[in-house]
From TrEMBL:
Protein name (database record): N-acylglucosamine-6-phosphate 2-epimerase
Protein origin, superkingdom: Bacteria
Role according to the record: Converts N-acetylmannosamine-6-phosphate (ManNAc-6-P) to N-acetylglucosamine-6-phosphate (GlcNAc-6-P).
Keywords (A to Z) from UniProt: Carbohydrate metabolism, Isomerase
The species this protein was found in: Catenisphaera adipataccumulans
Top EC category: isomerase
């Protein structure tokens, strides 16, 4: 995409809902047919974009749903906590599958090579210049660095998924509002993570979000059910624990 096409794509997402349609082999609803139905349902419901994981799921959705795609490739490792598009090769596969936007881990977490995850950002910018880059961060400082490095889109996607934030279950709206105020003139700001109701989404837009990504609250019925049963059971369990375990128990070849 050239600069004008990138600008127009971002404009098409302004003040909209983007639905994250992802599925893992350990999910009870796992099937490629299901992930496609999720994307079609999101399109029918008025979503303006899709976020999807892995080249095969990205391509399937892009072949059948006419919406902009935020693509990522979750590759898990026993020696690193970085799993969102951790390498240039992974980014290239996401791009080849049809995603216009590539999501990268831009936190301070270390990759398998012992390098901060954010160091991949300028590499992908150079090697895949036609792509828009979505920086997934976990705090204000990481968002600031991503904005300074020229990320096109920034969101606190990994807030709650790093060692420092792993016990978090609610969005930090105050920090996000600060990100929007300070970096909104340089990057397209997206609220992603821990958004479970339409009211939360509207609140994020009011605080400065250019768009909102919602995932499990819409597309992962088993986790939606778990949130209900955990609360009904007196909060003796935490549905997020089940979510993390379902990922951590994936066979390495499936990750």
């Amino acid at each position: 995409m050239n600069a004008e096409e990138k600008k127009n794509l971002l404009a098409s997402l302004e003040k909209s809902l983007i639905v994250s349609c992802q599925i893992q082999p350990t999910d009870p609803v796992y099937s490629m047919d299901f992930v496609l139905k999720m994307a079609k349902a999101a399109e029918w419901g008025g979503a303006k974009g899709i976020r999807a994981n892995s080249p095969d799921q990205i391509k399937l959705i892009k072949d059948n749903v006419d919406l902009p795609m935020i693509g990522l490739y979750k590759i898990f490792s026993k020696t690193s906590d970085v799993f969102i598009t951790p390498t240039l090769d992974a980014a290239r596969q996401v791009w080849a599958a049809g995603a216009e936007i590539i999501a990268l881990d831009c936190t301070d977490q270390l990759t398998e090579d012992g390098r901060p995850a954010w160091e991949l950002l300028p590499v992908v910018q150079k090697e895949i210049p036609d792509a828009l880059i979505f920086a997934d961060v976990s705090n204000y400082e990481e968002a600031k660095r991503a904005a300074e490095m020229g990320a096109d889109m920034i969101g606190p996607t990994l807030y709650g998924y790093t060692k420092e934030t792993k016990d978090i279950t609610e969005p930090d709206m105050r920090s996000f509002a600060r990100m929007c105020r300070d970096f909104g003139d340089r990057a397209f700001m997206i609220m992603e993570g821990h958004i479970y109701t339409p009211e939360d989404a509207v609140k994020a837009l009011y605080l400065g979000a250019d768009a909102v990504v919602v995932g499990s609250a819409i597309t992962r019925p088993h986790l939606t059910t778990k949130r209900f049963t955990d609360l009904i059971g007196g909060l003796q369990d935490n549905w997020r624990t089940a979510e993390r375990e379902s990922i951590n128990h994936l066979p390495k070849e499936s990750k």
